Amino acid sequence: MKAMKRAGTIVISVILWAIILLAALYAFTTMATKDDQNVASILGYTPLVVETDSMKPTFESGDLIFIRKCDTSKLKEGDIITFHTIIDNQYALNTHRIQKIDEANGVRSYTTIGDNNNGVADQHVISDGDIVGKYIGHVSGLGKVMNFLSSSMGFLIVIVLPMLLFFIYQVYNLIMISIRLKKAMAVENAEEIANARIQQEKADQAADEAARAKDEAQAALEEAKRLKEEAEALKAKAEKELKEARKDED
Questions:
Q1: What pLDDT band is residue 3 in, cutting at 50, 70 and 90?
Q2: Domain assignments of the chain as residue spans, ordered by start
Q3: Strands 80-87 and 131-139, how do they pair?
Q4: According to the UniProt record, what class of enzyme is this (predicted)?
Q5: From residue 197, how far is each of 75, 91, 192 by CA, in Å?
Q6: CB 75 within 8 A of CB 126
Q7: pLDDT tens figures, 15-70
Q8: Radius of gyration of the chain, Cα coordinates, nearest whole angstrom
Q9: Hey, what CATH class is 2-150 in?
Q10: How many Å apart are CA 19 and CA 12, to the nearest integer?
């Protein structure tokens, strides 16, 4: 029973940590793209959710991609990069493959293209300052999870509710531990009281025995004194009779 309970606790803890990690990933991906001017990263890495199929089959809408900050001077044609650009007259992030690199007066410019855009390059040519990082890999479908978490219902079901249940479970555990601790302390106190009572009874018994022994010793002493007095009286009587006997002989 204890082994099963311990195993259940471990499983719940693993689930909780998975939820926490998922929540952290969701929070970071949300934070990473909240500000179009500055993309957040951890140790140079940033997760982003793919919104279109422009790079299919390399990755597609609903995937979660990972980009890493890079030295733009080492980029080459064919690399996949994430960069700031204009899409539908809005400032946005895009992740496409470098089709061509041009350099003039030490300044590089990049023409990009989506793998699924039928050979049509992106309208805007970008520079080093537009580049956020280089694509290093993706997890298929995980972006859909992030998008679901971004909804109020998804966040409530997947993040808030499990964490609330776990919190309630932990509070219940603390209460049970407190109850067990109080019971253990009560048992220990009862044992101490019982032991103290036994020791007191033994002490009282020893005191009674000592008192009886003292009384017996006193009685024996009194008896010895009486016998001594009788013996002295008999001796005195014998001496007196002896004296009288000698007077009669004279």
A1: low
A2: 2-150, 158-250
A3: antiparallel
A4: hydrolase
A5: 86, 84, 8
A6: no
A7: 767 766 766 666 655 555 544 456 777 777 888 889 899 999 999 999 999 999 99
A8: 49
A9: mainly beta
A10: 10
**221 pairs with which residues across the strands?**
none
Do 56 and 119 form a contact (C-beta atoms < 8 A)?
no
Q: Which residues contact 148 (CB under 8 A, 6 or more apart)?
A: 154, 158
Residue 91 is predicted with a pLDDT of 84
| Beta carbons within 10 angstroms of residue 158's beta carbon | 18
Give the C-alpha separation, 46 to 53, whole Å: 20
pLDDT of residue 75 exceeding 90, the answer is yes
Its pTM stands at 0.55
Distance CA(41)–CA(132), nearest Å, equals 10
Q: What number of residues does the chain have? A: 250
**Measured distance between the N- and C-terminal CA atoms of the chain, rounded to whole angstroms:** 112
Give the tens place of pLDDT for each residue, 115-141: 999 989 998 999 999 999 999 999 999
Residue 168: φ, ψ to 5°: -60, -40
